[in-house]
Design brief:
One of its GO terms (biological process) is microtubule-based movement. This is Heterokaryon incompatibility domain-containing protein. It comes from Lasiosphaeris hirsuta. By secondary structure, the chain is an alpha/beta fold. Helices cover 54% and strands 7% of the residues. The strands form 4 sheets. Strands 2-1-4-3-5-6-7 form a 7-stranded mixed beta sheet, sandwiched between helices. A 6-stranded parallel beta sheet has the order 8-10-11-12-9-13, sandwiched between helices. A hairpin with a 5-residue loop joins strand 15 (638-640) and strand 16. Helix 41 (943-960) runs antiparallel to helix 42 (966-981). The radius of gyration is 43 Å and the shape is extended. The N and C termini lie far apart (97 Å).
């Protein structure tokens, strides 16, 4: 043995020669975990005088210093005291290591990468921080450190910094908890007192760098000598070790005992995939003396396969242990298993017909002299036969005297040398034998394990096409995977994985056929089915026998979506279908939620909202339901979510249940019961019901997948109708259209074309078409509904009036204002005459008419009508009623359209605060009022306030109604335009692209909202001078709109105007002029010569004339536009003031300097009064005024026919793609000696609506649409 010695100079260490045993002085020894080989100081390093720069030298220094403090001159460190280049020395060292540690005076455990606070060194009691250091350190996981812990009498623990944590005595409790080693073994190195298997268990979870070292590091613990043979593999090394241990045992063992063996009726599975976590848990539980452990899980989840693998591993660790296997599905099989054990063991008396075979086996198992044993009870799904009287195979009681009958469970001895492992599908059955804490839940495989299993069963070394998808489709169930592999391998002609997957996905019936396939040997009991579906269905039969009500719950669940199944769908009995709202209340196109109208109802609901019950008291019914759930959970067919109110089940279990119901002719019956339940519990899709709808919507979609028989068709249609209502409200147009169309067709089939519920369904389809921008299709359906109701119900029936209002809204969406106005007037007058002028429905129709006026720029008429509606609602409904707040919001938007921003702001704040208090701060109506207030801030140039509020609205909207809801996208677009108004082009562009891509994916690439976002993106390019990109995108938008919406639709005209602006920006005057003339003439014909959009086009054309130096034409057209604007909008309206500034600029260029100066002075004075002195437009006007005054001595400079690079962009409000109304602005360049003409433009909102329902928080001023018009705006729609 070599030792280290610190030199007299105290700086370096040296090695002694190999010392004979009688010459070895007192020494300290180091225990540590190795780093990389390059970090550790070796024998060769010390011999060569190198290694001091290595990381590991720090350990040597620590050991030297600590030994010196303990009065020891010599110490030993394994890395450098053994010459590993000498194989003989290595062999001798391995066999001597335990002795070297045992003989050391002190052993220092050096815990790398640890430290504690100063002042705690030498404390004798462990602190919590030390506890965590010890429990988490890898020193306790290494193989060689086991003997280094047990051999020395004194073991002290130190941090890397040399701080002492304690010794083996003071830390004994913690070390015992970490290692599982008994405290007596820690404190007394006479280890032969402990059982061989127990000592093996101490090393069970420890690891070594070389696998053979796992055996070699135990030589001293067992007191045996064995030459190492690296390369022999761990299992051979362990086998040699056990032989050496056996040879060293003292004589005196029983001479005639049978040789221990393994009685497992299955061969070991060479394709077994290690489920290491489960195997480790099994080893830990089953390794305890006298343990009883159970594996519980779904049939086919791999419980028996785990038990087989565990059984074959037992002899590898305990060659003298017995392993018995008993199939425990019933009493007869249980008895057969015990007789086989008795025969194998040759137990005397087993052939005596009067012998109690159970007692014989029990006595043998209980005799400690027979050695350790493990008994595996497989498939113990019903433990009732174990707890009943003991019955033998011939049907007679084993005991003559019935009074002495005992349950079979008595034959399972509880002893320290025996362990029992149970596999069961039923947790309840397993708990008859095993404590709950000893039950191991077996779930389906992980993804990687499942894929590996399929690869092995198919003898494939790599993942092929479809393998990943197939294991996912089979939900990682081992039996299903093995079944599939057997089918693929054994069928003729051969079937590929992809072909199997295609068949599997074809239909549920095809799935069931494939999963019912009985393959060959799968290492399952002969009586067990090799089909996973049949396996489960046998359990269903068993549950039906013991608790029929639990099968009823399972039957209902099989029709649900597999996740989030609410208890409300499962408990109680079915009653008559509750119509609740679907008969008498129809979804109306709410101007806040859906963007198309206000929701209200005609008449009263006739449904009974009380819960059904079966006559039991509430507590009794609740207890009964809980018991049903417990039975299903015990069989692992379902699981309970964390909320305790919803459940989940595997899709394949659902399929098995459906096939089982079909086999008994019960599937249609239970499908109808499920539909009745869902029909009763699913509410309408309005906001106040969203929590319930969100929970039930997946189950409605599941119901929609399969149409039922005709007797259940009406309930099915109602479920789909309500689900479509909810999908429409949350902006899921694609799903809403699918569900509404199915509901419409079903109702037509069952109820006929003209029945009220059928017309409701048709109206729902129309609403969805409208939300998706398909207005022509919506119009056709709405005309059909209206004409039918006129004929069937009469032209003055409330439902007929609703249909007329819906059609009017669709006209408005297409920019057909005159037709919309005519129809709204008819609805309003009829409603007023039939149900009264102050009825809420009449007030809604008035509000819709007012919105139509506003969309035509007839703001005075709109304002008058909105005030009338608002005042009436305050008196009739109350000042805080949601409808009243809607009307206040509409009036505020009308003020904003007229540039009366202070009044608008005041009213919006009032609406927002009241709405927040009354209906909640996150209600969609409240969010609309917040967005409208933000728009008003933007109108006043208060960008920071607008931005802050828009961000708040966007984030709340995203959380409450979804990040892809059209209203959320509208909020994002508003925020992007706010960035744009501040010149933050990159942020604006990024957000607009996000809106565009999301809209394209969710709504479609040709949806009006998507086209709007594309137009916004083009405007962002134009604002940055990226003319080519802007032109390309806006042409794409325009051409699509011409094809989809029509060449005269307001949206199309806006895009044409934007393209003209882009031409003008590039100095392409002729093209710009031609397009502006076309837009203006079309707007005159379609919208009217005095419509605000027409006036915008006139101003744009005038500026185009000016850009070409055609000042007379420019002046004539601009003066005309100014005159109409002043008359139509008022002289103080912001748009009129823009016209005033434009005309002043033209006069300036035509030499009318005094007139221009007077007009710009008037413009500045009015803007100061109307907008405020700090508004960007007022500030711009002041700059112009100052420049013109300074320049009054001479003519202004000519304007170049292109837009200079420096521009300012004050914007009035936020909108989507808009007309740009250009004004000339003169600024003084700092440091320049002359005045330069600058271009700037005022963006004016067009008539363009994002579409009723999408505008949400976009400016509702102009579109009868949403946002600010929180409300009334919409016609009443069904």
């Amino acid at each position: 043995m070599r030792l280290l010695l610190k030199r007299a100079d105290g700086n370096e260490v040296s090695l002694t020669d190999n010392l004979p045993l009688d010459k070895i002085p007192r020494y300290a020894i180091l225990s540590h975990t190795w780093g990389s080989n390059s970090d550790e100081v070796t024998y060769r390093d010390l011999m060569d005088g190198t290694g001091k720069d290595k990381v590991g030298y720090k350990k040597i220094q620590f050991c030297a210093e600590q030994a010196k403090r303990d009065g020891l001159d010599h110490f030993w460190v394994d890395t450098c005291c053994i010459d590993k280049s000498d194989p003989i020395e290595v062999q001798r060292s391995i066999n001597s290591m335990f002795r070297w540690y045992r003989n050391a005076t002190r052993c220092y455990v050096y815990l790398s990468n640890t430290s504690i606070a100063d002042g705690e060194r030498n404390s004798r009691q462990p602190e919590p921080a030390w506890d965590s250091i010890l429990r988490g350190h890898r020193w306790f996981t290494r193989g060689w450190t086991l003997q280094e812990l047990l051999a020395p009498a004194s073991v002290e623990f130190f941090t890397e910094g040399g701080q002492r944590l304690g010794d083996k005595l003071s830390l004994a409790t913690i070390i015992h908890e970490i290692t599982g080693i008994p405290i007596p073994a820690l404190l007394d190195n006479r280890l032969s007192r402990f059982d061989i298997e127990e000592r093996f268990k101490w090393a069970e979870k420890r690891e070594t760098t070389y696998e053979e070292d796992w055996a070699y590091c135990l030589l001293g613990i067992f007191g045996v000598f064995m030459l190492p043979n690296y390369g022999e593999r761990k299992d051979y090394a362990v086998r040699r070790l056990r032989k050496e241990i056996e040879a060293s045992e003292r004589p005196g063992r029983p001479e005639n005992r049978p040789n221990p063996s393994i009685m497992v009726p299955f061969s070991r599975d060479e394709d077994f995939v290690k489920r290491q976590a489960l195997l480790d848990q099994m080893s830990q539980n089953c390794g305890k003396p006298g343990s009883r452990t159970a594996l519980v899980g779904l049939g086919g989840v791999g419980k028996s396969q785990l038990a087989i693998e565990y059984a074959y591993r037992i002899p590898e660790r305990s060659p003298k242990a017995w392993v018995f296997w008993v199939h425990a599905s019933n009493a007869a099989r249980f008895e057969q298993g015990f007789r086989e054990i008795a025969a194998h063991l040759k137990i005397p008396g087993q052939h005596d017909p009067k012998a109690d075979i159970f007692q014989l086996v029990h006595d043998w198992l209980g005799d400690e002299r027979n050695g350790r044993w493990v008994l595996i009870l497989d498939n113990l799904d019903n433990a009732g036969f174990l707890t009943a009287s003991c019955v033998v195979g011939d049907g007679h009681h084993a005991d003559i005297d019935d009074t002495n009958l005992q349950p079979l469970i008595r034959c399972l001895p509880q002893c320290q040398h025996g362990s029992i492992l149970v596999t069961s599908r039923s947790r309840e059955a397993a708990s008859q034998l095993v404590e709950d804490r000893c039950i191991i839940a077996v779930d389906p495989m992980g993804k990687e394990d499942a894929l590996t299993l399929l690869q092995r069963k198919l003898c494939q070394h790599e993942v092929g096409d479809g393998m990943d998808e197939l294991t996912t489709a089979l939900e990682y169930m081992p039996l299903a995977i093995v079944q599939a592999a057997a089918y693929i391998s054994q069928t003729w002609p051969p079937c590929s994985v992809q072909q199997y997957l295609d068949k599997f996905r074809k239909s549920d019936r095809k799935k069931a056929g494939l999963l019912s396939y009985e393959s060959g040997k799968l290492r399952r009991d002969a009586s067990a089915k090799n089909s996973i579906l049949i396996t489960w269905q046998i359990s269903f039969d068993h549950i039906r026998e013991i608790r029929p009500s639990a099968v009823h719950v399972l039957s209902l669940m099989s029709f649900c979506d597999r996740q989030g199944i609410p208890a409300s769908l499962l408990r109680g009995q079915d009653g008559e279908t509750k119509r609740k709202q679907e008969q008498d209340e129809r979804p109306r196109q709410g101007n806040v939620d859906g963007g198309d109208g206000v929701v209200f109802r005609w008449g009263d609901s006739n449904g009974d909202n009380s819960d059904d019950n079966d006559g039991s008291s509430g507590d009794e019914a609740n207890d009964k339901f809980k018991d049903d759930i417990m039975v299903l959970r015990n069989f692992s067919f379902i699981s309970t979510n964390r909320d305790g109110k919803t459940f989940e089940m595997h899709r394949l279990v659902q399929l098995a249940t459906l096939e089982w119901l079909e086999a008994y002719g019960q599937q249609d019956h239970w499908r109808h019961r499920f539909l009745r339940r869902l029909c009763e519990r699913l509410p309408t899709g309005e906001y106040e019901n969203w929590v319930e709808c969100r929970a039930l919507f997946p189950h409605a979609k599941s119901a929609a997948a399969v149409a039922p028989k005709e007797e259940a068709l009406q309930d099915w249609a109602t479920v789909l109708y309500k689900a479509a209502w909810y999908a429409w409200r949350i902006g899921n147009g694609a799903e809403a259209e699918k569900l509404a169309t199915q509901a419409m067709r079903a109702r037509k089939k069952v109820l006929g074309q003209e029945q009220n519920d059928t017309l409701d369904a048709i109206s729902m389809v129309a609403l969805v078409h409208k939300q998706r921008g398909r207005w022509k299709e919506a119009e056709l359906l709405e005309v059909q509904v209206m004409e039918t109701e006129k004929r069937v119900l009469g032209s003055e029936h409330p439902h007929t009036l609703v249909s007329m209002a819906n059609l009017a809204l669709t006209y408005g969406n297409q920019g057909r204002w005159a037709e919309a106005e005519s129809l709204f007037i008819q609805v309003m007058e009829t409603s007023s005459r039939v149900i009264g002028s102050e009825h809420p429905h009449t007030l809604v129709s008035m509000a819709n008419l007012a919105l139509t006026y506003r969309n035509q720029g007839r703001w005075a008429e709109a304002e008058s009508l909105f005030i009338q509606v608002m005042e009436t609602e305050k008196r009739v409904l109350g000042s805080e009623h949601p409808s009243t707040l809607t009307s206040m919001g509409n009036l505020a938007s009308t003020y904003r359209n007229q540039g009366r921003w202070a009044e608008a702001e005041s009213l919006f704040i009032q609406v927002m605060e009241t709405s927040s208090r009354v209906i909640g701060s996150e209600h969609p109506h409240t969010l609309v009022s917040m967005a409208n207030l933000a728009l008003t801030y933007g109108n006043q140039g208060r960008w920071a306030e607008a931005e802050s509020l828009f961000i708040q609205v966007m984030e709340t909207s995203s959380r409450v109604i979804g990040s892809e809801h059209p209203d959320t996208l509208a909020n994002m677009a508003n925020l992007a335009l706010t960035y744009q108004n501040q010149g933050r082009w990159a942020e604006a562009e990024s957000l607009i692209i996000q809106v565009m891509e999301t809209s394209s994916r969710v709504l479609g690439s040709e949806h009006p909202y998507t086209l709007t976002s594309m137009g916004n993106r083009a405007s962002t390019y134009r604002n940055q001078g990226r003319w080519a990109e802007a032109e390309s995108l806006i042409i794409q938008v325009m051409e699509t709109e011409k094809r989809v919406l029509g060449s005269e639709h307001p949206h199309t005209l806006v895009s044409m105007a934007n393209l003209a602006l882009t031409y003008r920006n590039q100095g392409r005057w002729a093209e710009a002029e031609s397009l502006f003339i076309q837009v203006m003439e079309t707007e005159k014909r379609v919208l009217g010569s005095e419509h605000p959009s027409t006036l915008t086009s006139m101003a744009n054309l005038a500026l185009t004339y000016g850009g070409q130096g055609r000042w007379e034409e420019a002046e004539e057209l601009q003066a005309k536009e100014f005159e109409i604007s002043a008359k139509k909008l008022g002289r103080r309206h912001p748009n009129t003031l823009i016209s005033m500034g434009n005309l002043a600029s033209i006069w300036k260029h035509t030499g009318r300097h005094e007139d221009a100066l007077g007009l710009i002075q008037t413009c500045f004075d009015l803007r100061s009064q109307v907008l405020g002195v700090g508004h960007p437009y007022t500030v711009s006007t002041l700059s112009i005024l100052k420049a013109w005054r300074e320049d009054s001595s001479g003519p202004s400079k000519a304007i170049t026919p292109h837009r200079p690079s420096k521009i300012t962009v004050p914007q009035e409000g936020l909108h989507v793609t808009q007309h740009d109304k250009l004004i000339f602005k003169i600024e003084t360049e700092t440091g320049a000696s002359e005045l330069k003409h600058k271009w700037s433009w005022q963006k004016r909102k067009s008539i363009r609506a994002m579409g009723q329902g999408f505008r949400g928080v976009l400016d509702a001023l102009k579109d009868g649409g949403k946002a600010g018009d929180s409300g009334k705006g919409k016609a009443v729609a069904k």
